[in-house]
């Protein structure tokens, strides 16, 4: 199905398939399988071997990389991550996204904007995707702590990586990959100057984490607190649209 054009009127050919495993995770899963077989076959220690074999299956599942059907609409900002909308707040963008970085490409404009925080549990897909199409202007890695990614302070104190993408019309979207309690490595797939398509894979965070998205001024979320979102498919916001949305948990 990759590359096929699908629409809301039934065009396209769709069939279910097992999601592939991203190459970044194959080595971890292979090592876990090898160690489990050593205990099962080499030492006949089933009490250790079988749990390790189950763990290896969990590792492969963690690094699954399913295909996504990405909406092609310049008006929308898509979710860069799978997970739970855990925080929606009015904040100032990170300093690293606003300061002059010497490249000649301006960062985000100072001033309060809406930040949407998406928490990824170990059960979510951890491949992150571009929320808009454009040129990667900044990739800024910042070492830090490993607090619970669900906490508000994680945005400023945890290990994190800021990314800034600029469209051809000048619109800029900043988002941040944040490591959590278990996560210990943020893996980028892109660098400054790269051109990315909307929904393109741009990186991953290993083993539980969070992504913060900074919406442009004058734009409200199209998602609700507590909602589950899907990277590359869920519309987080429509540029320039402001509207109060309410939901009921049930």
The number of distinct structural domains comes to 2
Q: Note the main sheet.
A: 8 strands, antiparallel
Structural class by helix and strand composition: alpha+beta
DSSP helix count? 4
CATH architecture identity of the largest domain: Distorted Sandwich
CATH class category of the largest domain: Mainly Beta
Give the quaternary arrangement of the chains.
single chain
Mean pLDDT comes to 91
Give the end-to-end Cα distance, rounded to a whole number of Å. Answer: 34 Å
Strand content: 25-35%
Rg from C-alpha positions? 19 Å
Poorly predicted regions are none
Strand order of the largest sheet: 9-5-6-7-11-3-2-12
Main traits of this protein?
2 domains, 250 residues, Glucose Permease (Domain IIA), 8-stranded antiparallel beta sheet, alpha+beta, 4 helices
């Amino acid at each position: 199905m990759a590359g096929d054009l699908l629409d809301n009127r039934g065009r396209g050919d769709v069939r279910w398939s097992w999601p592939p495993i991203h190459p970044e995770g194959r080595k971890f899963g292979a090592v876990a399988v090898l160690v489990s077989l050593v205990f099962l076959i080499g030492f006949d220690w089933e009490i250790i071997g079988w749990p390790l074999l189950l763990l290896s299956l969990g590792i492969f599942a963690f690094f699954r990389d399913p295909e996504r059907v990405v909406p092609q609409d310049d008006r929308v900002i898509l979710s860069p991550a799978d997970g739970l909308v855990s925080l929606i707040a009015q904040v100032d963008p990170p300093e690293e996204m606003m300061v002059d970085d010497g490249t000649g490409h301006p960062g985000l404009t100072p001033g309060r904007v809406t930040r949407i925080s998406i928490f990824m549990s170990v059960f979510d897909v951890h491949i992150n995707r571009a929320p808009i199409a454009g040129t990667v202007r900044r990739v800024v890695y910042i070492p830090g702590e490993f607090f619970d990614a669900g906490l508000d302070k994680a945005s400023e104190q945890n290990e994190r990586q800021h990314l800034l993408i600029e469209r051809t019309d000048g619109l800029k979207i900043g988002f941040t990959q944040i490591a959590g309690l278990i996560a210990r490595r943020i893996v980028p797939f892109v660098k400054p100057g790269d051109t990315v398509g909307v929904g393109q894979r741009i990186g991953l965070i290993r083993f539980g984490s969070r992504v913060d998205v900074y919406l442009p001024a004058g734009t409200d979320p199209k998602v609700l607190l507590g909602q589950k979102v899907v990277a590359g498919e869920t519309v987080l916001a429509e540029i320039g649209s402001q509207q109060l949305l309410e939901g009921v948990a049930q």
